[in-house]
Structures are given as C-alpha cells and as structure tokens.
Amino acid sequence: MAVVEFRDVDIIFGSNPAPALTLLDQGADRENILTETGNVLGVAGASLSVEAGEICVLMGLSGSGKSTLLRAVNGLNKVTRGKVLVEHEGRQINLPECDAVTLRYLRMHRISMVFQQFALLPWRTVSENVGFGLELRGVTKRERNRIVEEKLELVQLDQWKDKFVHELSGGMQQRVGLARAFATDADILLMDEPFSALDPLIRNRLQDELLQLQERMHKTIIFVSHDLDEALKIGNKIAIMDQARIVQYDTAEEIVRNPANKYVADFVGHMNPLNVLKGRTLMTTTDKIPRRAEELILDRAGYCRLKIDEKSAILSATSNGEPSEIISFSGPEGIEGIQYNQFVTAPADIMLRDVIEIRRRSGSPVLFVEEEKLIGMIGDDEIFEGFLNLQDS
Amino acid sequence: MEWLTDHKIPLGRWISDGVDLLLDHGAWIFDSFADGLAFLINALVDLMLWCPPLLLVAIFAGLAYALHRSWKLSLLILISLLLVINLGYWEETVRTLGLIIFATLSCVIVGVPLGILAAHRQGFYTVLRPILDLMQTIPTFVYLIPTMIMFGLGVVPGLISTVIFAIPAPIRLTYLGVSNVPKPLIEAGEAFGATKRQILWKIELPHAAPTIMAGVTQCIMLCLSMVVIAAMVGAPGLGVPVLRALNTVNIAKGFEAGLAIVIIAILLDRLCKQPSKTEKK
C-alpha cells in the first residue's frame, strides 16, 4: 500500500471554485481560468503514489504547483477535488475529507514538515523549538527533554540546545527544523524546499546528511525542490511539474535519458551531469565498437585495442602495441592505485565523475563488465557527448 | 442659503434624548456600576495610603529591582518618590497612581482581547476602526458631560473618560502585533497539529508580546495625560492641585504638581518597558 497517494487532485485558490472546475474539465489552462473566474489553478489532475521509505521529489519552477501539492498532504492547502490518501494503521485515510480530530492526530503523529524559511520560533531556545511538536501533543517535560536531546544529537546540535535560534547560522537553523520534524517520530516527512535558502556548500552538506539519516530512519519523504541537481541526488523518484500539472514521474536516470517534453529537457540540459549520469547511460555498447580482425579498436587513433572471445570475455589489451595490465575498479577508494597505461574494468553503474577520474589516471578508455562479459566502453568521445548532448545520449 | 439653515437637523437633541433614555431606564445599572468601581478603586488607594509612605517607596524600588535587575533604576525611583513626599504631594500621587493602575488594567483586560478578535476577524476590525478613530479624536470634554451625568461626580466618570481615551492604544497595537505574525510560523503550528487556542497562546501572543507591551506603555501615558481632565469631574489626585493652580494663577504650585505627574510617568514607563529577548544578546 502506498504511504501517500494522490488521486486526480485539483487545487484551486478562490472562494468559489465550481466554475473553475468546469472550465478545467473543458480543458482550459491556467490563464483562461484566471481571466474567466479570477481563481488561481494551483494543481490540476495530479496522481502520484509514494511507497514507504521512498524519497519522492516534486520538482519544477516556482509557481508550478509543487509546494501546493506538498501542502495538501497535511492539509495546509485545501484540496478542491480528488483524494489525498495517507496510510495509517493499515488503512488509507482520505485527508481532505477526514474530521478535525483525525487531521490533528495525523499532524501530531504521522506527518511532520520542514519549511523553506525554517519557521522556527525566535523567542524559544533550540531545544524548546525541537520540543514544540511534543509540547503540543502534551508530552511531559521530562520525556520531552529526553527525546529532544536524542534528536539534537542526531543532527549534531547538542552543544547548542540552550542558544536562541537567531544565534545559529542558516544551516544550523535548518538542522533545528529537521530535529523538530524528527522529534514527533512521524513516518512521513514533508520538506518544502528545505535547503533552498542556504548557500551551496551548506546545501550540499545537508543533502548528504539527509541521505545518511534516511539510511537509518527509512522515512517516507516528499521533498520539494526547484533544483534538478538536488532532485536527482536525493530522489528515488522525481515528479516534474509544470503549469500545475505533473508532466513526468520517473526515476532520475529515466528522466535524464527520456525527458517527456521540452520543459523537462530544458531542466535536464542545465543540470550538472557529473553526479547523475551513469556509465551505462553514456557507454558505447560492445556491438558498436569498431573491429579490425580479432581486435576491438577503442579510440580513433587505434592505440588502444582489446581482444575478446566469442562470449565477450576480455582476453587481453594492448596500448600502442605494448600489452597492458587489466585491473578492475572496485570503488572510489581504489581510484588512487590506478597506474598510467592500465586498462580498468568497472561496473556499469558508476557515476560519470568516477569515469572521468579513471580515464584521467589510466589514460585508457574505461571498460564495463557485467557477468564476466564486456558490455561497453567509455572513451573521450562518450564523455564529451555526455556533457554536450544529453538528450541524444 | 435659507433652505439649508431653515430646518436644522436635531442631531444634538437626538443624542441628548438617547442619553436621557439611558438614564431613565438604566440609572440603577449605572449607579451600581459606579458604586462597584468606586469601591474597588478606593480599596486600592486606601491600601496604599494605609501603608507608610517610606515602606511603599521601598516596595516600588524593590519591585523595580526584581523586574529589571538594575540598581540605577531603583535609585532613580527612590529619589524621585522621596522628592514627591518632600514636596507634599504624596496623597495626591497615590490617588493618581490608583486611578492610573485601575484605568490601565481595565484598558488591557478589555483592549487586548478586542485586539486579538480584530486580528482574527477582518470584518470586526472594519467596524471597530472608525469607532477607535472617533474615541481618539472626539474632544474629551464632549463625552465628559454625559459620563458625569450617568456616573455622578467623583473618581468613576474620571476613570471612564480615561478608559475611553486610552483604550484604542492597546486595541490597535494588539491588533498590529497579532496580525503581523509571519504566516510560516502559524503554518508550522498547524503542521504539528496545534489547535486554534495553542496557536494563540504558543505562537501569536509570544510573537506579539513586545508590540502589546508597547501598547500598554502607551496606554499608561495616555491615562496620565487625562489626569487633569479627570480632576474636572471630581476625580481626586494630582489633577486637583494643577487645576487649582490654574484658577489661582499659582506658577509654583502648578509646576510642583506637574513635576509629580512627570515623575509617575517616568516611573511607570521604566517599570513596564520590557527588555526584549533579542535586545538582551
């Protein structure tokens, strides 16, 4: 069962949404609805399901409706039509229709949230902020302090618990926001552009920390971002939104390889490919590598050649006529040991960043091997193509 | 022009008729209200007068130290109150203090909830705003007349007039403070399951507290500015010697009593000014 599921969700801002819904059903777009009814179309026809332990990123430009959709999960935005189903004790609760008591229960125990501008209470200390949700729930002070200490340790802020929020840097403030969200032990975490207000280095570090925490905590996270690099790094699945609609919902690799339309392709064109593209996406497959007699010619000059048997297992390699050693790449820690003129075999799932590093150290094309068979290789041409011409790769 | 002046709209008569109507049918309400209020104020004033002056001065100085941990402030209060005793205005000062404390309390008890309500219901504020404007701009003497008729001479009409004049300040500033709470803070409360009441007590009021306190301080100052006018309808206190000085063109007496009013103003202002948490660091 999906932990969070959107079914044909429409969200319209305005006091009388009925005419806007009719227009929407007739296929009107955002501008039409605004000029004809004065209502703003927030989200139209969004369907999406998020499984337990997944990080789902809602991605799009500002105004695309991603935050609006996110905030429907805990009822901060009212759903005009459609269902938002939140799994709770084996049942799916339709949030827009549930009563105030259930909504409050879900907000206190099941769903928590991290805000873009942190939304911490400035007159409270760090630990009082972290304990806020527990305080609302009526947890005793002693129990609260215990949980707060534990969560502050988790985000490495235990030294700062008695400081006021404004005495902390932006990155630390958002860690307080994270600790506050973790404190209620809710399984569903809504993150509304949590790292957008931070500078890039801190943002990167917090992304890494979030991923590390996620490995331990296995929350179901819905994460809003306008930054494709962030989305690709964090998300198991990414929903790209444009003009109030979800235009593509897929894994990171799939979005990079097959953008659904020009809007997505534009995003993909501006991302940093180093951490996203994998060897498999860029490699030239074995059957397309040029052959001369028994040998595969790996580069244009013909210096690097490879002999394989009929089952595609690698037999030997030569560089400029001299036999070369073939070693296998096990992980980033082994990268330092690579010598010039060695050939390196690697699993096809390594990142472009590592491919380039291997290529630089060995001076030879990188070979990809799966089940003892050569499945493809990456040389300079493939790397350049990866940078220049993503959509066609 | 004659057509315009021939038939005068009897605006003044309507209002006086209205007041008469109130008096005919509600005299007992006003009377018991006046008696009750007078009893409470007199009890407070009698208590303070019963206390030996030097002890009361020490209590004020001690209170200032307890609130602000500043011996300079305590010293200032000590010296200025001793000066008042020296000038011979102690009893009047205590009576004025009683009136101010009572008027301010009434303003806060009524004004702060009204301000909160106005911040939550925009419609209510639209109705309230012209009334507040009216209360602040209409000359005090104008409503002094009906309050005097309704509540008789003495401290009560003085108190009522003072409250009418001063209450818009806490209402407006409470409204301002509560409606300026950033939306993300309220949403953070909602997202963690806060009820409306929890949002009010844990988010809106703490955030608005400095603004509300500013409203209270302002309210005290406005009350003080009414001391002389309240004296005209018979409210005892420092206004009485000021009025008497005016009638007898007695510069010395006027300035002495005026100085005592200024001293109370400074004292109350310093006592109420809250060092905000952000200032502290």
Automatic annotation (TrEMBL), chain A:
Gene3D superfamilies: P-loop containing nucleotide triphosphate hydrolases. Residues 28-268 form the ABC transporter domain. SUPFAM superfamilies: P-loop containing nucleoside triphosphate hydrolases. The gene is choV. The keyword ATP-binding applies. Keywords: ATP-binding, Nucleotide-binding. This is Choline ABC transporter ATP-binding protein. One of its GO terms (molecular function) is ATP binding. InterPro entries: AAA+_ATPase, ABC_osmolyte_uptake_ATP-bind, ABC_transporter-like_ATP-bd, ABC_transporter-like_CS, ABC_trnsptr_Choline_ATP-bd, P-loop_NTPase. It comes from the Bacteria. Coiled coil: none annotated. Transmembrane segments: none annotated. The keyword Cytoplasm does not apply.
TrEMBL record, chain B:
Keywords: Cell membrane, Membrane, Transmembrane, Transmembrane helix, Transport. Residues 93-272 form the ABC transmembrane type-1 domain. The chain crosses the membrane at residues 47-67, 73-90, 97-120, 140-167, 212-235, 255-272. It comes from the Bacteria. It is found in: Cell membrane. PROSITE patterns: ABC_TM1. Its main location: membrane. It is a multi-pass membrane protein. Belongs to the binding-protein-dependent transport system permease family. This is Choline ABC transporter permease subunit. It comes from Sneathiella sedimenti.
